[in-house]
Amino acid sequence: MSATGPVRYRSGDEDSGRWQGFPFRPGDIVISTRSKSGTTWMQMICALLIFPSGDLPEPLGHLSPWLDWRGTPRDDLWARLAAQPHRRCIKTHTPLDGIPLDRQATYSVVGRHPLDMAVSLYHQGDNIDRRRQRERTGQPAPSAPPPPRPPLRRWLLSWIDGDPTPDQDLDSLPGVLWHASDAWSRRHERNVVLVHYDDLQADLEAEMRRLAARLEITVPADRWSALVHHASFAAMRARAATTAPDPGALLIDRARFFRRGTSGAGREVLSPDELAHYHDRVQNLASPEVLAWLHHHPATAP
What is the pTM of this model? Predict the structure, then answer.
């Protein structure tokens, strides 16, 4: 956070300034992740902890809205959240230094291996209706057709070498590492919880129980098995019509949003020399502790 308040992050789709003046309530949960890093998974987990019956009152994207997204008028979204009588869970792709940090709220940040996040982001790009996206967010149509995207491997190598600042592109490698680094620096704060995507894969129930304890939510003992099932990747994909994040009907196929749900895709694409180049590159962008956490060395887990 700067001396004058949160950092302002803006893109064609998002504006962190929409958080300015947001009226928090006791118990609010804010999920702060980079794109394709486990956002929807964490939203589902939190929603199930709030509603342990497993019956969510509305589709996940409406129950847990994306506050930064410019496609929904801010006042409409705030009014929708104000009308929710239950504990609220709010999505953001903004780092914690770009949103108000309120003592009444708990902030959950999900980390994922940057290469896996990037590969997932690449594939997600083919599943978005770009014309409708521009219409919903007020972006002008391009003056000429965009060039075709390069194949995945070439795109990924370019992504590794890209050098925008985080405020220019939060989905860049510098942006991803800044988001994680800022969260890591706050990991000991009472209302900040760090979660790793691979830990959710390895032992979903343990991570859900850990999060419930941090959120001070008591779940009936006989509900845990069902909740863990409902939060599984397979169950979420099976109910993609109500679980995929699609407030503006931008997804071409909601089931395709849940493409793979496993780790290692980025490392499968690159050669050993290219992987070594990636590791050389990130040494200059984040601390060894942050990189060890993102690359999932369990000894460094917060």
Answer: 0.88
